[in-house]
Amino acid sequence: MLRKLFGLGENAGRTAALRLYDQIVAAARQPVLYAQWNVPDTPLGRFEMVALHMVLFLRRVRDEKGEMAGIAQILTDEFFLDVDHSLRELGISDVGVPKRIKKLARMFYGRAKSYTEALDADDLPALEAALARNVRPGVEQWPETRDLAAYMKDKSVLLASQSVGEFASGRLSFEEPAGT
User: Hey, what's the signal peptide range on this chain (predicted)?
Assistant: First the structure.
């Protein structure tokens, strides 16, 4: 009770969420995604990769309650604040930002649904199709989609091995432990 009275729980949750978000963004900026797997290194391509990693993390904690649910909400809010900030840096006017945010939110939640359903069903062809449709729309052949789908499956398994306690402390890893 005293933690809530003095706002300590909320600050700790916000601190954890910001740390998690930094790690998600770092994972989304891995050079392999852009240099080897041909994800466009554009604002939209970077949005796609941050969204992909957000989906992986949010899928992992979707059934959690209490503190972790709050952290997941703060994390999601931070993601959209970052999108808002990025749009403004790109020169989108104050009037145009809300409209673009709504469109990007629909895009994000659509991706979350299709990626989560495919991962839950262990349906790699469906995941590949969703990735190709979203990350490289209009490109007929994108062979690296298999690599990205396998990456998502691997990272989903890796996240499942990490404890919620680590997440609540702001620790998250998309990297395999050393020696594996």
Answer: none
Report residue 99 as tokens.
Answer: 């409209």
Round to whole Å and give the CA distance between 110 and 51.
Answer: 11
Distance CA(70)–CA(12), nearest Å, equals 11
State residue 30's pLDDT score: 94
What is the CA angle 152-56-65, rounded to 5?
150
Q: Which residues, including other chains, have CB under 8 Å from residue 118's CB and lie 6 or more apart?
A: 124, 126, 127, 130
Q: Please give the DSSP secondary-structure letter assigned to residue 159.
A: H
Write the DSSP symbol of residue 176.
P
* Range of lowest pLDDT (59-73, 88-102, 143-157): 88-102
Report the alpha-carbon distance of residue 101 to residue 93 in Å, rounded: 12
Q: What does the block give as tokens for 148?
A: 């990205």
- Using CA atoms, how far apart are residues 152 and 122, in angstroms rounded to an integer? 11
* Strand, helix or coil for residue 4: helix
DSSP character at residue 162: S
User: Pick from 104, 65, 77, 103: which is nearest to 21 by CA?
Assistant: 77
pLDDT digits 0-9 by tens, 69-102: 999 999 999 999 888 888 777 777 777 777 887 9
